[in-house]
Design goal:
CATH class: Alpha Beta
CATH architecture: 3-Layer(aba) Sandwich
CATH superfamily: Vaccinia Virus protein VP39
Helix content: 25-40%
Distance between the termini: 58 Å
Radius of gyration: 16 Å
Number of helices: 8
Shape: globular
Strand content: 15-25%
Strand order of the largest sheet: 3-2-1-4-5-7-6
Number of domains: 1
Order of helices and strands: HHHEHEHEEHEHHEE
Oligomer: single chain
């Protein structure tokens, strides 16, 4: 099977990823090897594997504190596996409904020797009540007005949503105004990161889940 060309590792990877870089190189090689075959990434995504996917996820890993994180719709492991590689002090639960992708996440976390990964082959709504997390993230899942009611039940009171979004995030926030209020979200904002490490902008929607009165 002919594989598409894989993007060379950008210079900014060293600055951004630090000691995690060797493991991320292994991860990148595995995604390139298995990604198309398992339907993890489209063929056109391999030529931007580092900038669009790995570094994009690594930026998120630098925005959170130690604790627990759930990645909803983890897919190929962006951002969940990257966060687990970058942050051994974060216990990462990867929630993925598709069996083939969940198996990949399990296998890849073992190949990389990650002891801080749990994979749930479930839909996010079916995991409600099992656990709550300090942080919940999702990438390219759906618009905020749809996504927020799905993920808020997974966040502990006082915990935080850190959702990776695209350029339309400001419009998504306006469209979700009543949803934010209804779900008790405080201090909603967009954090832009990336240029300080010499890589592309990444937009992260952040909001805290209100403590129970």
């Amino acid at each position: 099977m002919k594989h598409s060309a894989v993007e060379p590792e950008p210079e900014s990877a060293s600055t951004l990823c630090g000691e995690a870089l060797p493991a991320l190189r292994s991860f990148a090689a595995d995604v390139a090897l298995y990604g198309e075959e398992l339907g993890l990434v489209g063929p056109r995504e391999l030529d931007r594997l580092w900038t669009r996917h790995i570094l994009n996820s690594a930026l998120l890993a630098r925005l959170i504190g130690a604790g627990t994180l759930a990645d909803v719709g983890s897919g190929a492991g962006f951002p969940g596996l990257v966060v687990a590689i970058m942050r051994p002090d974060v216990s990462c639960t990867l929630i993925e409904p598709l069996g083939r992708r969940a198996t990949w996440l399990e296998d890849e976390s073992k190949r990389l020797g990650l002891g801080n990964v749990t994979v749930l082959n479930q839909r996010a709504e079916d995991t409600v009540g099992q656990a709550q997390y300090d942080y919940v993230t999702a990438r390219a899942v759906s618009a905020l007005k749809t996504l927020i009611p799905l993920v808020v039940p997974l966040v502990r009171p006082g915990g935080e949503l850190v959702l990776m979004k695209g350029q339309r995030v400001d419009q998504e926030i306006r469209d979700a105004a009543s949803v934010l209020v209804r779900n008790g979200l405080q201090d909603p904002r967009v954090q832009i990161t990336g240029p300080e490490y010499g890589t592309e902008e990444t937009r992260v929607f952040r909001a805290r889940v209100a403590e129970k009165a």
